[in-house]
């Protein structure tokens, strides 16, 4: 080996010694500074530490200024609330209702026989007796009106008697009605006379105790009628039914003056009742 090569090897060896010596010095100094702490040669990256939370700061909150509540003012025209007053329950008014009569239309009449009705009359004269034009009353005849022009509403009762003699007659019927009820009887009638200077006395009545006949009947207003008046309605007064619970209804006819020919006609009888008032 040449001298030059030996010189290069020597220089390199010296450089190695210098480097190793420098490294030894660094190690010794590092161990002298941290004798108790082990040297970690790990190459791992340390875990990041959480950032410290800054201390809270106080932010002043503005205090709201109290607002005054406005006082309500009345309207220009205040509405007055009406006072509620207790209302009373009205008393129920009884309802009028018809009472069933037998054969109210006077149908099926035979000579002096009226189904459902009885007949009555005042008689003080018969053919051959001394005659008094004012006070003589002959026996009446009860029959169906033969001339349909004289019918009131279909078959009609006709009452007549001897020429030139007066008559006084009535028909009646007794029916059951609740005691204490108020009843009123009505019937249609026509008076026919030869001379209209006089007419027929017509009226309707009710016996509130249901007696036989019409002697105790309470009569409505009399009507003096002839054919010129047409059909008239006869109405009895309202009466209270007696404790026996029955009434007698009556239709009455009497000639005002004796005439050569005269007759009375009846139809459409009806009895109306109101029930007794309840306490």
Summary?
The chain is mainly beta and 279 residues long. Helices cover 11% and strands 28% of the residues. The chain has a domain at 97-274: Jelly Rolls (Sandwich), CATH 2.60.120.
Task: Write structural notes for this entry.
With 279 residues, the chain is mainly beta. The chain has a domain at 97-274: Jelly Rolls (Sandwich), CATH 2.60.120. Helices cover 11% and strands 28% of the residues. It has 1 helix and 13 strands, in the order αβββββββββββββ. It has one helix at 3-33, and strands at 97-99, 118-121, 141-144, 157-160, 168-176, 182-193, 200-207, 218-219, 223-225, 232-235, 239-240, 246-255, 262-274. The strands form 2 sheets. Strands 1, 3, 4, 6, 10, 11 and 13 form a 7-stranded antiparallel sheet that branches. Strands 2, 5, 7, 8, 9 and 12 form a 6-stranded antiparallel sheet that branches. The chain is rod-shaped. The termini are far apart. The model is unreliable at 34-48 and 50-58 (pLDDT under 50).
Straight-line N-to-C gap: 162 Å
- Total strand segments: 13
Q: Proportion of β residues?
A: 25-35%
Considering the protein shown, what is the CATH homologous superfamily of the domain at 97-274?
A: Galactose-binding domain-like
Helix content: 10-25%
User: Which whole number gives the mean pLDDT?
Assistant: 82
Question: Major sheet, described briefly?
Answer: 7 strands, antiparallel
What's the SSE pattern?
HEEEEEEEEEEEEE
Global shape: rod-shaped
- Please identify the top-level CATH class of the domain at 97-274: Mainly Beta
Assign the CATH topology of the domain at 97-274.
Answer: Jelly Rolls
Q: pLDDT below 50 for ≥5 consecutive residues: which ranges?
A: 34-48, 50-58
Instruction: Classify the oligomer.
Output: single chain
Q: How large is the radius of gyration?
A: 66 Å
Helical segment count? 1
- Class from secondary-structure proportions: mainly beta
CATH-derived architecture of the domain at 97-274: Sandwich
């Amino acid at each position: 080996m040449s001298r030059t090569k030996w010189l290069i090897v020597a220089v390199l060896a010296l450089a190695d010694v210098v480097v190793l010596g420098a490294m030894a010095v660094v190690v010794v100094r590092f161990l002298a500074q941290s004798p108790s702490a082990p040297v970690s040669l790990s190459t791992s990256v340390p875990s990041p530490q959480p950032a410290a939370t800054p201390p809270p700061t106080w932010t002043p909150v503005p205090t709201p200024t109290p607002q005054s509540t406005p006082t309500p003012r009345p309207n220009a025209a205040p509405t007055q609330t009406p006072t509620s007053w207790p209302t009373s329950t009205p008393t129920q008014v009884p309802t009028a209702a018809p009472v069933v009569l037998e054969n109210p239309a006077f149908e099926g009449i035979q000579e002096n026989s009226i189904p459902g009705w009885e007949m009555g009359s005042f008689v003080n004269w018969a053919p051959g007796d001394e005659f008094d034009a004012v006070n003589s009353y002959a026996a009446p005849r009860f029959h169906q009106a033969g001339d349909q022009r004289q019918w009131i509403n279909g078959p009609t009762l006709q009452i007549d008697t001897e020429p030139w003699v007066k008559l006084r007659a009535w028909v009646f019927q007794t029916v059951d009605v609740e005691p204490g009820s108020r009843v009123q009887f009505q019937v249609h009638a026509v008076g026919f006379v030869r001379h209209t200077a006089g007419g027929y006395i017509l009226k309707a009545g009710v016996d509130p105790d249901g007696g036989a006949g019409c002697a105790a009947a309470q009569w409505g207003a009399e009507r003096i009628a002839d054919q010129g008046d047409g059909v008239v309605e006869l109405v009895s007064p309202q009466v209270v039914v007696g404790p026996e619970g029955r009434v007698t209804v009556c239709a009455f006819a009497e000639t005002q003056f004796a005439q050569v020919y005269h007759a009375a006609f009846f139809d459409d009888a009806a009895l109306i009742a109101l029930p007794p008032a309840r306490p």
